[in-house]
Queue: 2 jobs
Job 1
Amino acid sequence: MKHKGLTGRWLRWQRGQAMAEYWVTIPAGIIIMLAAAGVVQLITNGLTQTVEGLEYTGSVECTVTTPDEVTGPVYANLSGHTIELVMNVYDEETDTTQIAYQVTSGGAHDISHWMLGLPPGVAKHILWTSEPWVDHTTKADPTTGMFGIKFDTGYDSSDSDSGGDGAEPPKDKDKPGKKKSDVGIVLTGYSARAADSRLVVIHLAGYFEWDITDLGVKASTDVFMGTITAPARRVDPPSADDC
């Protein structure tokens, strides 16, 4: 038969022993929980910084194609006759493009006309040019077989036939006369002769992509062909919204 007093003291002793055994484990558990909480906090902070780094900061750089970026050669030498792209300027306020080719008659015979292979979709946007031109975008030029626009004002590399102002009266009422401008000296064969060089300006409505196009020069009975860069198609001008 058990005594109540002994039972009570026995239970109190067992409880005390249990507390003594588990007391040393309580701090370790707390430390483990705190350490785990620190790791979780570290991971959370890292993810937060990553997300913030991916958010828009307001300083995005946008690279757009500028009008002076062209595709293809900017210079062509056709048996001594040279054509070079020297200007390509787009005006945002007027939405117009102004280009210019330096054309030099330096071959054995003077240039009677030259062709630039602009497509119809570009030629229709021509506002004005510094010299008269003929539309051959849909019907080929009979002397060169090319499609494009033809500049029919001839070149003159000699001074004997020109007047005081450098112009020769037209031989045909429908054909422009020869016009002299910047004159230099070139070597043709074994002799030096004057070279007639002019700046031909083309003013277009809109902004254009560039590509390689055909080029042709008619000099006496000779026809010389080549390629050069030119406006190929009208497109919307680039903007920051295209990024």
Note: The radius of gyration is 42 Å.
Job 2
Amino acid sequence: MEDFVRLPDGATLWIYTEGHGPPLVLLNGGPGLADYLQPVSTLLADACTVHRYEPRACGRSSPAGPHTLAQAIADLESLRRHWGHERWIVTGHSWGADLALAYALHHPGATRAVIGLAGGRVVNDRAWHAAYAERRHTEEMPTAAAPNLDVNRALTDDWRAFCCTPDLLHRLSVLETPCLFVFGEHDIRPSWPTEQICALLPEAAYMPLAGADHYLWRGNPQGLAKATKTFLKALAR
């Protein structure tokens, strides 16, 4: 079901819901990308009520700012309240996985679990960016994956500042939210920041996905579905 929701400050976001089961929200990467996670929603719709949305100034959502990490977290919390969920599973792809972690830190009581798809890192590191830049020309992006560059720059700068928060690693080390991070074996991005996060979080698992690149559902959809649904079944138990 497609709809629009008006946020407390008057901004409107495009939203979409399908499936049945425990609530799960999908967070786009970029930052600054419109919705491109319909294939992931299709994989999970038989196990979850899957929500998707387009952030401010992306796709069909209104251009209203500010484009900050704090606002992105607040918008996500507004959506949870709009959909009427006490707790939900926050699932992000690429930078969306980073946002999922930040949301869990700010709203641990509302976060049933975090699933990171090809993302999840809290570093502002030149080596990571150098490796990505060197390989970037080899990656085929989905047709819809063209970011709003203004949003991308603003949120990337804000994320880098967030990574320098003095107590960030301590807060992650005591976050008891169950987490799963799935990373494609052919992703051009270095996996070590995500593996570090998994080693730091007390309830986290890291899973390399054979045959997959950054867009995990493209190379190994069956493996991605199995990994996420196995994790979801464990949560239910």
Note: The longest strand covers residues 12-19.
